[in-house]
Amino acid sequence: MPQILLKIKGLTKSYRLGKRAYPVLKSLDLCVPEGSFVVIMGKSGSGKTTLLNMIGLLDRFDEGSYHYQGVDIAGLDENRRCSFRNEHIGFVFQQFHLIEALSVAQNVEIPLIYHGGYSYRRRLERVKQSLDELGLADKINNYPNELSGGEQQRVSISRALVNNPDLILADEPTGALDTETGRQVITQLMNLNKQGKTVLVVTHDEEMKRYATECLRLKDGVFLKEGEA
Ligand SMILES: Nc1ncnc2c1ncn2[C@@H]1O[C@H](COP(=O)(O)OP(=O)(O)O)[C@@H](O)[C@H]1O
Ligand SMILES: [Mg+2]
């Protein structure tokens, strides 16, 4: 039996606009085993990004519990949340979120700088290794606007990997790419999964579900049961 990486129970989140609260996630339960490739499908507005932000410790939930490797996430103060996120989780976004003014190497280096404690030599070593894994060794001194969309997404995957996290979270990673380039990105995520990373993707790309060890559907803030549309 694989170990449980993270376990969520009764997760609830509302956004407040003025005096009204709009519920977006309604008492979700989610269990992610180590080494799995979880795909969460759902239409635009179903709450996918909100859920990913909760799992990735980018935002706080209102109710429920969240344990990651047994650690009670709700009990962490802001500093601990940040260092926990930096150490355990890598992010991949639809629009890549690369910094245009920085080179590929400098973009990938960012999580190592946040982490602190690494010498420049060690950082460069890790950056090279991470870019090499994604087949981008020859792009190390380029700038994001000199790369194709697929290459930019691979740079962002290198950046997600550079701290050697256990979990990769990807928010619509193929959303800004054509079908063929999107497939290459899916293949890269699958390779990482084969190497032992747990991967959780949210998407409305039906193609992704073929690769999942578990596929869940989110609709209006709840997971649908099998067979429900
Ligand atoms: N920061 C926010 N403030 C208020 N409402 C938000 C905010 N972020 C998202 N929402 C609303 O929450 C719902 C779910 O959004 P989101 O999680 O982005 O869905 P998805 O990623 O599936 O498209 C939408 O109705 C959206 O308008
Ligand atoms: Mg979204």
TrEMBL record:
PANTHER family, sorted: ABC TRANSPORTER DOMAIN-CONTAINING PROTEIN, IMPORT ATP-BINDING PROTEIN
Secretion signal, residue range per the UniProt entry: none
Pfam families: ABC_tran (PF00005)
Protein name: Predicted ABC transporter, ATPase component
SUPFAM superfamilies: P-loop containing nucleoside triphosphate hydrolases (SSF52540)
Entry's Gene Ontology molecular function annotations: ATP binding; ATP hydrolysis activity; transmembrane transporter activity
Native species: Syntrophaceticus schinkii
Any one GO CC term of the record: plasma membrane
Residue span, ABC transporter domain: 6-229
PROSITE patterns (UniProt xref): ABC_TRANSPORTER_1, ABC_TRANSPORTER_2
Entry keywords, A to Z: ATP-binding, Nucleotide-binding, Transport
Gene3D superfamilies: P-loop containing nucleotide triphosphate hydrolases
UniProt-listed SMART domains: AAA (SM00382)
